[in-house]
Amino acid sequence: MINFTELGALMRGLAGSASDWNDAAVKALLTAMDSDNDGKVVLSDFGAWLFGTQLSAAEESKLKTAELTLGAKPKAKAKGKAEAKGKAKAKAKPEPEEEEAEDEDEVEEGEDEEEEEGDDDDLDEDDLDMNLLSMTGRNALWQKLMPARAGSAQDAAERMKGLKPPDSKRPDDHKHALLYLQNHAGADRDLDGVAPKGADRKKALAWLKAAMSKISDGEKQYQLPVKWLIANWRLWPEPDNKEEEGFLDLKALAVKKLDGIGFKYEKQYVERKIGQELGFIGEDLEMKVRPRQDEYIKLPEDRLGLEEQDDEADDYRMPGALGEALYYPFWYVIPSSRHALSTLRPKQRMEQATYIVLLLSAVHAVDHLFQARAKEICESVGGSVRAPPPKGFMRMWAKLDTDHASAASPKAAENIDTNRVAWIFEEPSQLRDAFAKAQEIFGPPVRVKNGYDPSFDAMKDTKGYRNILANYRFTPGMTWGALAGRDPAHADASAKTHAAWDKFRQLLLDTFLNMGFIDEASMDEELRQYLHCSDAARRFYCSKQMRKEPVGIVVEIQYMLQSYFDMRKYTHTWYKIVRAEEPEALVLDYNS
Fold it and tell me: Which domain of life is it from (predicted)?
């Protein structure tokens, strides 16, 4: 059975501060767990509350093996009790350090049960938002008790335990980097630059540089720990300062690595006379206007029928005392969006997000059609194909405040590389043939950026990497009604599209769950709205309104020679560092 004292000790340890969970909040949380209202919380009660349903045999087994540390002994109340009254906070993602704060509330032995359960607490249970408190508690405990989600920061920490230090001369750095992963900030921006207890930032950064060198040499086992170390706000004390010492040091190393690789490939570019072979491609094409996706994908007037947030009642507040609006607004959680997007009213934010989801729903719906057509063209001239997944929601959201900050609304319509494919060729002649055939099938490109042009300064702009980026209007010759399943002649394509929509919604859900939520029900209202957007967009494309509308979207083909494809294996890790203008952009890139 779980009692008040044990639960209080656990919650305060998770939050990292005694003031995060006072007696009234702990008592209310215990009440929320008591599913049968018998005044006792046993394993089945706790499990049903945590999982949101009655436990299956598998779930009960998981819970029994979870690292549940509820064996706390009663402690004496300290003078910190008075300071903690009325100041409790429940953050969307509590600090995961497990040590209790030095000023944690203590309970003197011998005090009666009523005193222990906090009946004298200033914050009455009636003042609490019970749903919000229960949601916050569930998310915090889930992160502590359950196995790490695959690909998460917790997963990275577990994997790192089995890795050798990347620099054998500095083995001590390994444990400091591990502490950062074990105490990841998640979406909690209050932890910017706050090193975990016992961690040395300089040693963690030294580990990072050594691990990135290993990745560049082909040792991929370091990729996940590197990703989440860079994406940890704790590592960056001044995220918006492009002159921050640790960031500049990392960037200088990346530039040095890329320059060494780039000079080698620029020498090959000259020796193979690639400029003469490919530099002229696209020069005869006239492109007056930058293409946009809203040429085809337009936001309907009813904004997919989703409920609009009242602009005069913006309730997306920063975390405050328990009982207030405690969740982070999405524009705050997505780091690089805090500046420009924080000035948008809720209706405007929702409109931008709605269009992103509407666009991505179309992107996923047609990607299998585009990739099949692209593969056929490329292989017909002797090339090979690499098809990356469509661009993600978080990356597109972040670009609203950077690349697309000055764009007309909907800003996300500027994303014309949402469906993309890489065509790889051994010989320049194959690339030329592919470019001509693509124009024959897709029509003239709507934009071409030729990195093989001798006038392009590759060392300055891309550290020696060269390719051709070309965008096309992709119109597969069917309507949205047919793609949605209203035409038996396109049944196979429709089945793939519906499977892609299912996958897209799951990808969106997984993106949000990685912020530290248990399930959809535990998310804040704004995130749930984005998932509703996905459902509404799917209904829209399947609607009578869209039945006769032709399918169309702007796509991107990257033309590269095999040597430059090989080059990316060595440069990709470093190039993400170089292109970041400040630590904030770097964190975002590794979170997307």
Answer: Eukaryota
